[in-house]
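Intended use. Records like the one below are meant for learning the mapping from a protein sequence to its folded structure. Do not use them to infer anything beyond what is encoded.
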Amino acid sequence: MDMDKEEELLRGRIYGQDHDDPRRGPQPGRTYAQLVGGPLDGLLLDVTGLTPQEATTGVALETELGRFGAAGRALYDPRPGDPAHWDWSGDTPDTP
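Structure written out for the chain above:
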């Protein structure tokens, strides 16, 4: 990844992080992927602690911004050959 793109990612907001968190932004020792498309486009996802299955099959992230409002999740999958980007594949209702 070239330096300009790395710096751009480091300025991003992290999914799930409060806007008033004093440690906003990427933290040293963590691994992040940029969410592409959908309601969470442009946010960074901390993928440091994902299980091997999640790291290859994707995640369903809680969000009020998708098709199902507060009762929904946005689906993001790792981009083949580019683990630094995860692509939106749709929305789903939140299931208990």
